[in-house]
UniProtKB/TrEMBL annotation:
Organism lineage string: Bacteria, Pseudomonadati, Pseudomonadota, Betaproteobacteria, Burkholderiales
Entry keyword annotation includes 4Fe-4S: no
Pfam families: TetR_C_13, TetR_N
Organism: Paucibacter sediminis
Keywords, in A-Z order: DNA-binding, Repressor, Transcription, Transcription regulation
DNA-binding region boundaries: 43-62
Superkingdom per UniProt: Bacteria
An example Gene Ontology molecular-function term: DNA binding
Protein name (Swiss-Prot/TrEMBL): TetR/AcrR family transcriptional regulator
HTH tetR-type domain boundaries: 20-80
Amino acid sequence: MEINKDPCAKACKPRGRPLSFDREQALEQAMHVFWRRGYEAASISELTAAMGITAPSLYTAFGDKERLFLEAIERYASGPGGGYMRALREEPSAFLAIQRCLEESAEELTRPCHPKGCMMTMAATNCTEASAHIQAALSKRRAEADEGMRCRIEQGITSGELPAGTDAVALSNFYVAVLRGMSMQAADGASRETLMATAAAAMRAWPAPG
């Protein structure tokens, strides 16, 4: 009977083969496919072709299409889509924060290096009931962003930057609607200059102090 002389040998044995591709680069490409095609329309074959890997490698590295999509959304939120929340945190006034949101969105939504429009909006289009949980995940993220806008406006009311009677919810909903409209316009081919003009017009609707 053979005796294993090293009790740690089995525990130390590597599990599975190491990935033979750059996982982060593959995720970046998957993000672009979902961004351009939407969750349901993006097929496994289209994803693997863009990522430069096989289907078994996709499942090994990411689990399945749904988990790959959710990782892609996280990557978007911390990358191209991250400027929105940074602007709300960093600017000294609500006016400057929302102006920066609009202007940076005009830049980001029209960059030639990635699909046009906002991934949070575009990836959820044309989803059926079978993907209701994906829709819910995206809706939750959008709601969090909307809440950030409302809170920043409320801070402006509290500080006296905005009139005391300002309806924070209505004003927030207005600027959220402008941002989402800009996303759809960008997806339809609107230029940076067009979106910047929209942003400027929207900021002229800002309530006068006092």
